[in-house]
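F.,

This is the one I mentioned.
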């Protein structure tokens, strides 16, 4: 493997032009609309078009608010009540491209420093877990403080047992180690599932700091279904937990959506067999009758019995039925920035999705904008259930 998924992501975001055609009237019932942000990097709190992001990737619901991993600004932001505010992270200096340098510092929220945070998840007790990708760490936001739960700041693979009682963060002893963790999801009892991208596996980390392997073969990329400990992924980028305990993985390097359930890894959707010799990635495959081809899918969420995927390289959003039937629900496949009827709207390298109470939120990474549309998973599944048998 000669390239990491995060390098490939940067390449994807540079591909294709952005066509800015402004904002549609706020009519989410039959359109995809923009809530905050505009194409082009920036860093500004405010409402609607006043707000600015820089390469934002992961999103998560926090009650009625949308949490945003504002990756190139090295901050966690929040959209609530038509306004964007900074939740955690501070600038540490700008590089030649105007992006924040990033760093590694646990502190009060407004003094903490991240390095390319790419996803966040709200735990059952209200704390927020962050995949701090280039710090190779899982960080926790609790009230007004940030601390490290797992990871050492250096890339590697290592599990660890529980920390000493009543200690928040690493206690100076042996720590777990991750390699470019890109996605996190909340499980029961404050368990955190981690897409450990550079290690080609899915991990778990408990609130006491102990970590464990969930699925995959650490350090060995590939594509193989089967028993969780013999299965193989290629740079899995995100993970989502279903209500029945199943985990769904955006297996970016294999152009597939995988499912982990009852000790087995299976493929839910995706196709393609040719593999690039330089990167090790499966090459994107075109759609054909009965099969949908993904192009480096990065984001994933669960809405009822439906899995929703940010098909990043194809500039679209797809819905997947429990038996694997897949349909494009947003984006016309051309990179751009245009509010319109969902299938006619333009997205640019959408990085993540989150669903809550009938609304599907889309982090349109290449447009540095938060978009939204109405989506009813039960209604979408009607007429498709006969194929489950």
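My design for it:
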């Amino acid at each position: 493997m000669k390239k990491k998924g995060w390098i490939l992501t940067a390449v994807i975001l540079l591909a294709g032009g952005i066509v800015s055609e402004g904002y549609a009237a706020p009519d989410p019932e039959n359109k995809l609309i923009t809530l905050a942000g505009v194409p082009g990097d920036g860093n500004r709190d405010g409402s609607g078009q006043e707000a600015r992001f820089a390469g934002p990737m992961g999103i998560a619901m926090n009650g009625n608010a949308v949490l945003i991993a504002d990756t190139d600004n090295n901050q966690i932001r929040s959209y609530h009540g038509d306004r964007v505010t900074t939740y955690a992270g501070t600038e540490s200096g700008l590089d030649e491209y105007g992006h924040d340098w990033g760093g590694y510092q646990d502190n009060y929220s407004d003094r903490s420093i991240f390095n390319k945070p790419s996803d966040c998840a709200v735990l059952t007790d209200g704390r927020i877990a962050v995949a701090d990708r280039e710090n190779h760490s899982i960080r926790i936001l609790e009230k007004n403080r940030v601390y490290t739960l797992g990871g050492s700041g250096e890339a590697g693979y290592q599990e660890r047992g529980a920390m000493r009682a009543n200690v928040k963060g690493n206690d100076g002893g042996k720590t777990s180690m991750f390699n470019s963790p890109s996605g996190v999801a909340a499980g029961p009892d404050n368990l955190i599932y981690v897409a450990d991208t550079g290690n080609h596996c899915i991990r778990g980390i408990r609130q006491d700091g102990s970590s464990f392997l969930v699925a995959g073969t650490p350090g060995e990329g590939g594509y193989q279904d089967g028993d969780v400990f013999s299965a193989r992924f290629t740079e899995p980028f995100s993970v989502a937990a279903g209500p029945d305990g199943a985990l769904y993985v955006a297996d970016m390097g294999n152009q597939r959506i995988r499912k982990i359930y009852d000790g087995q890894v299976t493929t839910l959707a995706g196709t393609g067999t040719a593999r690039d010799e330089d990167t090790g990635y499966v090459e994107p495959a075109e759609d054909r009758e009965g099969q949908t081809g993904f192009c480096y899918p990065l984001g994933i969420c669960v809405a009822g019995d439906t899995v929703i995927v940010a098909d990043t390289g194809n500039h679209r959003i797809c819905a997947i039925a429990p038996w694997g039937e897949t349909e494009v629900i947003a984006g016309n496949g051309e990179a751009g920035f245009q509010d319109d009827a969902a299938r006619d709207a333009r997205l640019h390298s959408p990085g993540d999705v989150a669903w809550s109470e009938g609304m599907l939120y889309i982090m349109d990474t290449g447009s540095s904008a938060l978009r939204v549309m109405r989506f009813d998973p039960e209604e979408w599944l009607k007429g498709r259930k006969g194929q489950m048998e």
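The mean pLDDT is 90.

Talk soon.
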